[in-house]
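Blinded run. Sample ID left blank on purpose so nobody reads anything into the name before looking at the predicted structure. Input follows.
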Amino acid sequence: MSGRNLYLSNIPVEEALDRFRCALEPHKRPPRAEEIAVIDALDRITVAAVFARDNSPLYDSAAMDGIAVKSAATHGASETTPLTLQHGDFLPVDTGDTVRPPFDAVIMAEELQEAGEGNVIIRQAASPWQHVRPVGEDIVQGEMLLPSGHKVRAIDIGVLLSGGITRVAVRSRTTVAIIPTGTELMEPGDARKEGGIIESNSRMLEALVRQGGGAPARLAPVADEYELIRETLRDAASQFDMVLISAGTSAGREDYTAAALRELGEVVVHGVAMKPGKPVILAIVSGKPVIGVPGYPVSAYLAYETFGAVALQALSGGSEVGMSLVRATLSRRLVSSLKHREYVRVKVGTVGGRLIATPLARGAGAAMSLVRADGFCVIEQDCEGIEAGTEVDILLCRDLEDLERTIVSIGSHDLILDLIADELPKHFPNTRLSGTHVGSMGGLMALQNGEAHIAPIHLLDEASGIYNTPLLKKLFPGRQMALIKGPAREQGILVQAGNPLGIKSLADLTRVRYVNRQRGAGTRVLLDYKLKEQGIDPAAIRGYEREAATHMAVAAAVQSGSADAGMGILSAASAMGLDFIPVGKEEYDFALLAESLETEPIRALIAMLKHPVFHQKLEEMGGYQIVGSGEVVRIDC
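Blinded prediction complete.
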């Protein structure tokens, strides 16, 4: 075969990409999957959501070195009235040691004074659960650790292992054949010859593929012979998921790649309006993407980054994680020590045209906050903190475009938020849900301050007995608001399997150890309403002041035995194998500004709440009523 190749065009880059994507669409196949050890899962893409098998910590444990005490026995201790604890009234503990009943608090070693005969003197009373890490503080059994389609990072591996996961299902790596062509090619290290060119492009492409999560296979160089190039391409397309062929893509007399690809399959694009990189070829052979990469190194690099990485992404899934510096508005005040530079994990999203950064848990043991983080707010040494509303630098560990399509949710916790976060990107590509759990009232405050798109709430108005609407009218006077109806759910008392203490009603809470939700949480509002209705004094409930941030944290405390009962939802009880005493049904809705209803991410959320897959998974979880889910109620405040 001879003569010049005259099929070069000059198609704009975006148009070329669109044509290539459309040509690939009919040939898409479900990704292959394999199960591998978690310790080998770095940079792999999860096939399905991964849920914790264990709590972390596994038990109530000391957060400090010191002594475990019964907090009630320390009442009255102060600088002026020190208290001597007798040997046997306390238990020496190191950080991480189990704290078992009757002990319920830890006093730090540096706050103790030895008194001889094994006794110690304390000068400050201990509050219940002081310096104690409760079971499930970081990870709760049944909690989603990673969503499907997630690229596993180093911190994810630690969290998976802490959650009891040792093996994980991931997508098999996309295999990519790399074919260098050219009679003049020499391998690095070969004896030099006149007219020879050291072949390096294929090794660069090999590294780029590996960097993108693919499994590259660099084949031996092929001479400029049409039949040889054609047969090598045919074999590669039959054996690999994707093919890159280097050089021979232009209009020279020995540039055979385009002609061979036309004979074997479809050349979608030959020639793109980019410099360098114009002679790139985009083709389909045996249903596989084949990219003809120009021979000049810079052209080869740009062609791969522009088209090859896109094709690899389409076959592999997942998203690249990068670090970039952006400016964002801090949603909550941060206080810091003058001793250190502090890296505060934050969630980031675009709300009202502004990037908003919401701080996450800051404890050294809160590994899940790293998994949830979108970036870091750096507080420099010698800085006491940063006020809310201040613009700060954020080091992003997610792509900025992802954040612009992220629904920022701040408010009440429910297991359906994990479900929505996992399913939303599957059905509405590039749309994410990013949630921070601060309780219903905290969510409404965030909505007031323009720090969230939606606030999941379930707040009962005592005067009217109506959920959510009265509070919105009170807090947002003169504003156009809306509620996206979520599935109604059942609240009740969570008790250990078999209900060994015979708890039947709220009245029985006065004789057991209780774990409560935080102030402002809808569950706590409902409890207080019911207690008032039945004439029960909250002060009579032992543990009323002990707070947990989520339903699953309440369930973990009950399951572990550190509490006998707690208010929560049926799905949390089911997830942890607990018994459930119904108290009442409630409305769990998403509050938002009415103007947000017209945005594409919110429309996707509404559609997800109505989606049959979502409804099916809710039925499997139990404890929800689907009727009305996704309906919109506009409220003129």
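Unblinding after everyone has recorded impressions. Residues 1-6, 318-322 have pLDDT under 50 and may be disordered.
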